[in-house]
Design goal:
The complex is a heterodimer of chains A (338) and B (250). Chain A is mainly α and 338 residues long. Helix content of chain A is 77%, strand content 2%. In chain A, strand 2 and strand 3 form a beta hairpin. Chain B has 250 residues and is an alpha/beta fold. Chain B is 39% helix and 25% strand. In chain B, the strands form two sheets. Chain B has a six-stranded mixed beta sheet, sandwiched between helices. A four-stranded antiparallel beta sheet of chain B has the order 2-1-4-5, with helices on one face. The chains are: A mainly alpha (338), B alpha/beta (250). Bound molecules: adenosine-5'-triphosphate and magnesium ion (MG).
Chain lengths: 338, 250
């Protein structure tokens, strides 16, 4: 059984991707497609979070702010200055990158809980800044009237496919970028610093520089995704900075498996479906007798706790473990003909 | 002979405790310089001050090849060609043995990227770790981890190698293997400073030995001279121990 999993890992992944790509071709239900797009955007944010949280071992709770800054940058530039969304989205990546550098400078010298506190404070500061300028940002209501994406006369929101494949491409680029990064010597240095900081610097790894780069690299695709998100939903909302979205995204990283990249990608999409369908199905609230919102977040919180308690390596960690074991089993049978 | 490292009056305090107290010494190019002293004498703290990990000296100067390095950040010190090991067996547990060594080759060295692999292979080979290269470092035995730490230190061909109790916890066979390794490395023009409690090993390999006690430099000299020095024996065995020692050795 496990031999099967191992030998067919690549083809299985390919089949999975092809099935996923076919969703808009065969599925008529608008909500399911909408959730797939949302799921892929969240998967981008979650898997990039895995770079700082999982590989660098840094509790960066300003990560969602990179996504939010991308959304607001492109939203404001297109609504207030009338520039094209296609220019606004990369601008969002640039501002997100700048924000990542600003937050990383004080954060890289701190440890553990202090990093979490500082970065959380930074993200709340961005939120307060946005709320304090309602004329520009729309304040509490969010920035409405964000233009949708369009090429010539072709409007993205009128098409079943356009957003799906655009975001799919973005997720693909992000995943390839992240996987290349973590399997490079740079990735090695992040893990070394995480595993044993003093030993790592004793072997010539420049701590501050590597951590700063980790923040920077983790901000670019979330910045782009934020812009696409705003034009997809035609609104940039302060909810992005809220605790509920952060918890949901955190669950994608933890349940998916820290320091795997693939885990948060796959579980990011799955969790989006689970969480949104829970929010929109009436029976959940009937069964639990409470309103829908809280049930969903209780579920996410419980899932995080159970994961940490019973399989801290996450879903992808389990997959890796099984395939490693089957590989070992295979090797021993080869070495020992009896 | 040229001096590679010179330490002048360095002091480090932890609150009231003076862990290293105005210590000075100089190490010549190519020599093996030993450091001995009872537990808590300040030997490891002295290593920490020289390498900047995790702190620098409160006062005093450390000069490496006529460059003042006492306030330099640790990765810069490694870049200059000073590589150390730790007293406690230390590894990047979630990386493979090979990756652990690669870390030492890639950052802050003047190796070209195309020679990383061969440098890593050579270091693994010389520490007898070739067969373990794909294992996770966390799975290695104590001796395995100690050798891995040395492999990742020598992969960059440092000018100065600093070993903190490499022999701690090793059996007799492993000890003699370690001894020949140290001599082999030294033959290849590496200068070595070694802290060691296992005195036969220390006195066997060192050209000169410094003895520390209570943070101070107590004595320095050739192994032969020190073995006859009463203050050294007293530091280790106490006043009564010294008498016993003389009674036994005649
Ligand atoms: N970070 C620290 N904070 C407070 N005291 C410390 C610290 N590090 C070392 N010390 C104290 O400084 C003194 C010297 O310690 P050090 O580790 O340098 O001794 P050592 O000679 O290496 O001993 P050993 O042979 O046991 O390794 C000891 O009394 C130790 O308790
Ligand atoms: Mg010590």
């Amino acid at each position: 059984m496990m031999h099967f999993l191992d030998a067919y890992k690549k083809p299985l992944a390919l089949v999975g991707i092809i099935i996923f790509l076919a969703i808009p071709l065969v599925v008529e239900n608008k909500l399911l497609i909408h959730l797939a797009i949302l799921g892929m955007l969240y998967a981008i944010v979650a898997s990039n979070w895995d770079l700082t949280l999982g590989y660098a071992g840094v509790f960066n709770f300003a990560h969602l702010a990179f996504f939010g800054i991308g959304a607001y940058t492109s939203g404001i530039l297109t609504v207030k200055l009338g520039i094209s969304p296609w220019l606004g989205i990369p601008c969002g990546a640039v501002t997100a990158a700048l924000a990542s550098i600003i937050v990383s400078i004080p954060a890289i010298r701190l440890r553990g809980i202090y990093v979490a506190l500082l970065t959380f404070a930074c993200s709340q500061l961005v939120l307060l800044l946005l709320l304090s300028q309602p004329l520009i940002t729309g304040g509490q209501q969010g920035l409405t009237g964000v233009p949708q994406l369009q090429i010539g006369d072709f409007l993205f929101r009128e098409s079943k496919y356009a957003h799906f494949y655009l975001v799919g491409l973005l997720l693909l680029c992000s995943t390839v970028f992240l996987r290349r990064l973590v399997s490079s010597d740079f990735g090695l240095s992040l893990i070394a610093l995480r595993d044993f900081e003093e030993y790592a610097v004793a072997r010539g790894i420049p701590l501050a520089r590597q951590r700063l780069l980790a923040f920077l690299f983790s901000s670019i695709f979330p910045g782009l995704a934020g812009g696409v998100y705003a034009h997809f939903l035609i609104v940039a909302s302060p909810d992005i900075f809220g605790f509920s979205l952060a918890t949901l995204l955190l669950s994608m990283v933890l349940v998916g498996g820290v320091a795997t990249i693939y885990g948060p990608v796959v579980i990011g999409v799955v969790m989006t479906y689970v969480s949104e369908l829970m929010a929109s199905s009436a029976w959940m609230s009937d069964v639990f007798g409470v309103s829908r919102g809280p049930v969903r977040f209780m579920f996410v919180a419980v899932l995080i706790v159970l994961t940490m308690r019973f399989f801290p390596q996450g879903v992808w960690g389990l997959v890796n473990q099984f395939s490693a074991r089957s590989l070992q089993a295979k090797n021993t049978t080869v070495e020992d003909p009896a | 002979m040229a001096t590679i490292l010179s330490v002048n009056g360095v002091t480090k305090k932890f609150g009231e405790l003076v862990a290293v107290d105005d210590v000075s010494f100089a190490v010549d190019e190519g020599e093996i310089y030993g450091i001995a002293g009872p537990n808590g004498a300040g030997k490891t703290t002295l290593f920490n001050l020289i390498t900047g990990i995790p702190y620098h000296a409160d006062s005093g100067a450390v000069t490496y090849r006529s460059e003042e390095i006492s306030q330099l950040s640790p990765h810069k010190i490694y870049e200059l060609g000073i590589a150390r090991t730790f007293q406690k067996e230390t590894a990047f547990d979630t990386l493979t043995v090979q990756e652990n060594v690669r870390i030492g080759a890639v950052f802050g060295t003047d190796l070209e990227s195309k020679s990383y692999d061969s440098a890593v292979d050579q270091a693994l080979e010389s520490l007898g770790l070739i067969d373990d290269r794909y294992r996770l470092a966390g799975e290695l035995s104590l001796y395995g981890k100690k050798r891995l730490m040395i492999a990742s230190a020598i992969v960059s061909n440092p000018h100065l190698l600093m070993l903190d109790e490499p022999a701690g916890g090793l059996n007799v066979a492993e000890l003699s293997e370690l001894e020949s390794l140290i001599l082999r490395l030294s033959g290849g023009e590496m200068t070595i400073i070694i802290i060691e409690h296992v005195l036969p090993l220390l006195f066997g390999v060192s050209n000169r030995v410094m003895v520390m006690d209570f943070g101070k430099r107590l004595a320095e000299g050739s192994p032969e001279a020190l073995a006859r020095d009463d203050t050294v024996i007293e530091a280790y065995l106490g006043e009564r121990g010294k008498d016993a020692f003389h009674a036994i050795s005649g």
